[in-house]
């Protein structure tokens, strides 16, 4: 199962880095909603990574520059790889929500949430870019798999 999550997060990282690089190359101004959604998604992954790793999870949900998002996304990816190498997916993580309510979930459940959450917002990001006549390369998982074979 670790290899499954490794592949999912490799896909996510490659697509994120590709999107961020394409946006950096655009001469047009990037809609602020796109930066907000990218930042939210990357900040949320950092929050979950920190919860799994037992770090202080007081993450500031702020909007970052594209350059900063590239760095943060790579850090998130490296943290997930570290989690997959050092933790069991069945391990239960106790944490508090941002509103202070106590919960617990397994690492497998949390990593599933993280990947699905990013997919959801990636769709919003692409939709927002299309409204501004900005088209990106394909980001579908199957496209990623075809390229790697």
Kindly report the average pLDDT value: 92
- CATH architectural type: Up-down Bundle
Helical region count?
5
Q: Can you tell me the CATH topology? A: Four Helix Bundle (Hemerythrin (Met), subunit A)
Label the structural class.
mainly alpha
Main beta sheet: 2 strands, antiparallel
What does this structure look like?
The protein has 149 residues and is mainly α. It has a single domain, classed as Up-down Bundle (Four Helix Bundle (Hemerythrin (Met), subunit A)), CATH 1.20.120. It has 5 helices and 2 strands; from the N terminus they run H-H-H-E-E-H-H. The protein has helices at 2-25, 32-53, 66-86, 107-131, 141-147; strands at residues 92-96, 102-106. Strands 1-2 form a two-stranded antiparallel ribbon. A hairpin with a 5-residue loop joins strand 1 (92-96) and strand 2. Helix 1 runs antiparallel to helix 3 (66-86) and helix 2 (32-53) runs antiparallel to helix 4 (107-131). It is globular and about 45 Å long.
Task: Record keyword descriptors for this entry.
149 residues; mainly alpha; Four Helix Bundle (Hemerythrin (Met), subunit A); two-stranded antiparallel ribbon; globular
Chart the SSEs and their pairings.
Blueprint (H helix, E strand, L loop, with lengths): L1 H24 L6 H22 L12 H21 L5 E5 L5 E5 H25 L9 H7 L2
Helix pairs in contact: 1-3, 1-4, 2-3, 2-4
């Amino acid at each position: 199962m670790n290899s499954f999550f490794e592949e999912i997060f490799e896909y996510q990282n490659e697509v994120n880095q590709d999107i961020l690089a394409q946006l950096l190359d655009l001469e047009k101004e990037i809609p602020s909603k796109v930066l907000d959604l990218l930042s939210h998604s990357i900040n949320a992954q950092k929050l979950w990574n920190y919860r799994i790793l037992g770090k202080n999870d007081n993450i500031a949900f702020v909007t970052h520059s594209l350059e900063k998002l590239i760095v943060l996304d790579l850090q998130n990816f490296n943290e997930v790889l570290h989690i997959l190498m050092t933790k069991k997916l069945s391990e239960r993580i106790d944490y508090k929500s941002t509103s202070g309510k106590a919960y617990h979930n397994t690492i497998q459940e949390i990593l599933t949430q993280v990947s699905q959450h990013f997919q959801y917002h990636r769709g919003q990001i692409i939709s927002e870019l299309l409204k501004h006549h900005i088209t990106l390369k394909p980001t579908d998982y199957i496209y990623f798999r075809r390229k790697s074979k």
